[in-house]
Each structure stands twice: as structure tokens, then as C-alpha cells.
């Protein structure tokens, strides 16, 4: 690229603060001059001095234009050719104007030439122009067809052709401003009037009014000049809204009748003040309504001062005017509908943007409302936009609602419920957000800041909260009188009326419970307009999104507070869950006996003879003998404190307590060393297995997963599957994260992630539900002949089966130990069964039913056959050195089976009532499963107690006391008379 071109392109990036668009436009000038410059530079025969002079000249101009952007803009407006503008438009994606169809009227063609733009038709390009980049209406200073030429052209047409020409002219115009200007220009030519005005009807039914769209438009006027003349320096309409029935235009709008006034000053409806201000003398006036296809007034057109003849409008003028406005009504309504669709599109875009903001901004309420208010102000164009947030949790109201709260009628405590205000004076705003038109940042004024001239705004906002209704205030004298009379919004009687002149639209903001949590308020719409139904609909949509945003943000803030509280609670819990330094020092300074002393290497280990201090020393010894403290560089104090903290976090339940965890850990320890399983695992896996065993029942509550689900405990809500196991793992991690307890602190991130993963998998494997899912896969793997234990999946499966084997390893202990452990397990189960009866009013399963404790031997046999034997038999296939576990399990099965058989024998003897001849007594009969003992008396042994199914107690009070046994079922005897194991032979009376 040549140097000169670079200089011109440099201009594009200068003066951006003036007008970025102008810089781009001037860039097209550079492009249009490039050919000349490039020819000069590329031709070697060109005189060097001439080239240098040309280069300096362009460089100087470029620098000057860069430093004087405003002058460049004026130069371009004054001297840029149409071709240059077209090149710029094409280069910036605007494209050339579509070709005009041949059937367009000459008026349209003339108007298009006058405005330097093609017709506006219903096309995607037009819609995009209106939505994305609405342009200013541009016109030349004069029309290509003069007024005289237009008049001659129109007069040469017959009436049908004339109407068709005019219809074509307006039917394709969808810009309201352009259409209204066309109508007035054409009407002025048709009626030979000096100028015309057009008013559009606005407002809801019952309070309709006229707005001056274009005023005093002459046949030679330019659209942009007419638009500028309709508003003052501040952009406000020069003509205030005219209610239906007021003035000439208002009368026509109300009556739908044509008015033809020969002398305006003689008509009392005419307002002379306008002539006084403008210096114009109005004589004749012709005014007619513009109706839609339903016959409703959508506007009023007015012609002023006929310039021919006697300067009076004739009946023929009225008829031509009427016919033309008939078709104008169609065009105006179409243009308004199109304008409405564009506005609705923008509104939908706003709502989508608001929705995006809600999901993007949840951490800060201030930033969220800032985003929303900026977007709404851009769309609705008002002087001020405010959001009031209501104080919904006043202390006195909370106490009152707490006293009157009925739990049956509501699911939420009253402190979380917004209040219902009976009076506006009761409303208290916690925060007020305000965005002004000339500002970009939202500020938060106090009520004191709004107590002066804007106090009425606060009164209306409180009124909206109290009534929960939209309040649209126009500030008219009639409305002020109503407020004074009825005390609406609790406005003080002495409040100055001039402070009530603002136009204010206030809409309540509701939360998800349809309670008012705030107010959205707009103040003084631009151009002095009142707020319309469309504005109300837009603001209502805004209030919905604002309510959602406020709700989401407040929920986020509440969640953040709850998380902070949870963090504090965890810190407190962590402190109290950790062992004290005194306990740690005591364990550190105590000599640790050998593993042989504790019999840690034996599969027959028992903790019954160990004290609590001994159990901690035994746990520490296992980590020492596996050399894990050295391999993982664990400080001895941290190791001791972690063990004591784990012990502290076990609850004093009957079975699933610290001692059970120690026994499970000892079993995996003996499996690794005595059972020679150590070589199958890495050091990380071995460490993880010991940690998992010691922590696998942390914070056990003495109840199983099923019970947690039935009572809908927080744990069951938190974990849908393996409820307690997930909780045990979380407690394990919590202890590891507690200060002074992290035994993994010197691991790399990869090692830490790996060991935590193994710990989690191992603890979850203690859920028997997972054991049943994985058992068949493990058995098939073992039976395959030569399983690959280096495979990660196979190794994980093996670790899971080992955890189950360790968890139920009490079944492999010597009979004395096994029987005592079984009683502990049964005791914990029976406690859960009692809770199910008491709290859930349910009959527990047999293993948890205290009334079926005599069936414990049979249930133990079933437990061994279903769970224990399969896993031990499979593990022996993996490592024969684990055979002592299998043999211990088989031996205990024999013992439980013997007890079950002995119980069955005694039950049989119980119902074989003998009379001394080993025959059934004739007085005893068994019919339909019932035992009838009408005359039977038995002796109850010493220290025996029991009860029948109906609750009547049976007990022995003396050695020879006789008890009468009524008829009952055999099942009842089996369930309710376990004390008859040594019953005396009944004696028949």
C-alpha cells in the first residue's frame, strides 16, 4: 500500500471522540482518491519533484483533517459526491438501494429522489435498518419536481387515477414520520393549502389524546426540518397533548366529523396563542379524522389557509380530502403496526438481554440492577429510572408472625416471608437504585436525598407496595385534585402541587411467592409524553426479570452466607474433632509394644483384653511395622494425633465403634503380612487400605442406610446411595484436612489424588449392596485360572473384596470371641428395630426384631452362607495363606448350626406334651394350626419371664406357682415363649 494511502487510513483512527462514523466516511474519500495517488507513485517517468509535492500535499491535508475532525465532517457533508457516499455504504454492508418497481407512482419516485433513499417496503433489510441502525431522514434542500410541476401532474390525472397514484405513494411507506410528511405534502398540493399539520391518537380508551406528529408542514418543506420544528431545544414536543374534545383537532377526533372553518379567529375552539408565538395568521382551517378499518380515530389531519381563489376550502376540497385520508388511514395503521413490531422486537431483545444478565450476574445485586436499569432506560427513554427494595423482615413484624404462625398452613417460617403492608406509611425501603438519563452509573440515593422535590416519587412507590398495583401518574390537575380528595398514596395535604407535576410510572416487583419485594419506577418520559400501555407492558416485563434477578442474587447471597457459616462450623468441628496436644504427647512418649505382644499378626486377634490406650498403640504399631511412617515421611506427632482424632470421631455405639475399626484394620494388616498379600499392592495402596479400614465406619450412628432413608435424614438427602459409607469417607477427609492431622501432607498432587481415590473406593466397598453387585465378577475372575492382578480394575475388585472380608472378619474369630461379637451386633440391630417400631410404626425385619432373638443362630448360619463363605473361599483361591480365615468361618458355622438345631429340637419338645406314657394328652388338640390347652397347667422355671402376643406377662413368682395357658397359635408359642427351653412336663388337672 502506498504511503499516501497509509496517511489517509491513519485518519480513520483519529478524532474518534468527535464522531467515529465520520472517520469511516472520510476513509471512503481516501479510497476514492487512491487510483490517482497510486498511478503517480507507480509511474517511474513521473517527475520526482512533482511526486514529492503531491505526496507532501496529501500528507499535510491528512494531518490537518486528523486534527480537525469537526471540519472534516463539515467538508464531507458539503463536498462529498453521491458516488463517494454510495461507495462508503456498500463498503460498510448497507448495500445499494433495491430497484424500484415500474408500477411505483411518480410521486413516490419524486419523493425518493428528494430524500436520497429508496422506498421503505416490508423487507428484511428495512426491518434490520429500523432495529439495528435507524438512520436520520435525509432530504435535499429542494424537490426534483417543483410544486407547480406536481400540481400540473395531479391535475392531468382523472380522479380514479389520482387516488390510485396517491395510494401507491403511501401504501409502500412504513416509516411513520416519512408517511406523515408525505400525507401532508400531498394534501397541501391537493387542496392548494399553505400548510398542514397531522396529529396521531394515543392513550387508552376513555382517556384518548392527540399528539402533534408534524406541525406546519408546507409543500416545499423537508422532512428533517419538519421533525426538528415539531420539538423544542430539549427534544420536547412544542404542542402539548390535546385531549379528545379540546380544540378544533380534539373536536374532530371526538366527533369523527369534518370541520371546515372559514375564519379561525371567529371559532371559539381555535387557540390563538399558537399564532401569537409563531407570528403566523391562520384564516381558513379544514380538519378531518383519519380512521382505521374498524372506524376508530387513529389521527387527525389539518389543512390551513387555502392559497387560491377566495382562500376558503370548498366542499370539493373536503371530498378530495376525505377520500385521500380514507386510504391514508390504512397506510398510517400499517406503519404503526410495523413500528410496533420493531418496538416489540427491541423489547424482546431487551428481555433476552435481561435474562442473560440474570444468569451472568448472581454474585452482586448492585451490578445486576445496574445492568438491568441501563438497558431499560435505553429502551424507554425516561429522565430517571429507579428500583426500590422493600424491607421485608422488620423485627416487630417477625415477632408478631412468629407468635401467630401456624405450621399446618405454611411450609416456610415467617422470617423468610415478605410482609403484607396495610398502609403506605408502613413501607420501609432498604435500598434505592437510581439511574439518570445523563449518567451511566447507577447511584443509591437515600430517602433524605429524595425528601425534597422528589418526595412524591417515594409516596407513589410506597402506594404501589401497599396496593400491589401498577400506578401510572400523569401529573394533571385533575389527578392532583383526586389525590388531595381521596388521600391516595398518603400524600400530605400541604404537599406542594408543583411537586406533583412529574409523570411517574410505578410497578410492583414480585418474588416467586407473588409477594412485593420492590418497586420499579420511571420518571418523566422523553419529549413530554405520558406513559402508554406499551410502556407499562415493557416495565412489567422488566419488573418480572428484575424480581427474578433480585431473587437469584439474594439466594446466592444467602447461599454464600450459609457457606460461610458452614465453613465456620467445619472449622469449629475440625477443632473439636481433633485430639488435643496433651493426648498426642502422651501417645508419643509411650513405648509402643511389639506386634507379637498385641498378637497383631494372628488371624485370631481380639481386642477384649486391651484398654483404650492399648488400642491406639496397637493401631500405631501396624503403621510402624509396615514402615509406612518412614515411606510417607509422616511426622510422628502427626501420625499419633491422626490416630487419636480418628478414635475420637467414633461414636460410642454398641458395635460399629472404634474397636470394630481396630479389628478390621488388624485383619487387613494380618492379610498383608501373615497372609502374604502385600506383594500384590503398592505402598500407596497398602497405606490407603489401612487408612480406609481405620476410618471405614467414622461417625456411625448405630443404624444402617435403609433406616437413614426411611427417616429422611440429612445424610440420606445428601447421599442417595451408600449413604453412611459416603459419610464415613467425608469424615475421613475432614480429619485429614484438620490442622495437624494430614498424614498425606508430603505427597505430590498426583500421589495425593491416587491415595484418596483408593481410600474412597475401599470405604464404599464396605456397603454390602456394592458387594453383591461385584461378587459374581470377582468369583468369575478367580475361577478364570490365572487372573492378572496388575490390571487396575482387577486390583480394585480385589481390594473391595478384601474390605468386605475384613469388615465381617469377626465371623472367623475363635468361638468365644465370635459369640460375644454376635451379641453386640444383635444388640445394635435390636436398637434400630426398636426405633423403627417407635418412630416409624413399622415391623422390623427378623434380624432387627428383638422378639425374634432366639432365631439368631439360624440367621447367623444364613449370613455365613450368603456373604462370608463366598468371599473367603475366593480369597483363599487368590492366596492360600488366607485359609485360617476360611477355616475359622467354617468352624463358627458349625457352632451356630448346632445352636439352631438344638433350638429347633427344644421347640419340638415344647409342643410334644406328654402324660407320662409318651403320648399326647387327649385333652390337648391341634386344630387348624391352633394349640388348645383348656386344662393344662405348667411350671415356670426360676428366673424366667415372657409374655403372650396380647401383652399379658408370664413370670414365675414362686417355685410351685401354676399358670393357666389359654388357646393360642403355634407361631405365637414359638415367638413369645423363648423361656420354655427347660419347661417342666405339664400336669393335667
Automatic annotation (TrEMBL):
Its cofactor is a divalent metal cation. The active site is at residue 656. Its EC number is 3.1.4.-. Residues 580-903 form the PDEase domain. AMP binds at residues 656-660, 697, 807, 860. GO terms for molecular function: 3',5'-cyclic-nucleotide phosphodiesterase activity; metal ion binding. PROSITE patterns: PDEASE_I_1, PDEASE_I_2. Zn(2+) 2 binds at residue 697. InterPro entries: GAF (IPR003018), GAF-like_dom_sf (IPR029016), HD/PDEase_dom (IPR003607), PDEase (IPR023088), PDEase_catalytic_dom (IPR002073), PDEase_catalytic_dom_sf (IPR036971), PDEase_CS (IPR023174). Binds 2 divalent metal cations per subunit. Site 1 may preferentially bind zinc ions, while site 2 has a preference for magnesium and/or manganese ions. It comes from the Eukaryota. Zn(2+) 1 binds at residues 660, 696-697, 807. GO terms for biological process: signal transduction. Keywords: cGMP, Hydrolase, Metal-binding. PANTHER family: CYCLIC NUCLEOTIDE PHOSPHODIESTERASE (PTHR11347). Belongs to the cyclic nucleotide phosphodiesterase family. This is Phosphodiesterase. It comes from Larinioides sclopetarius.
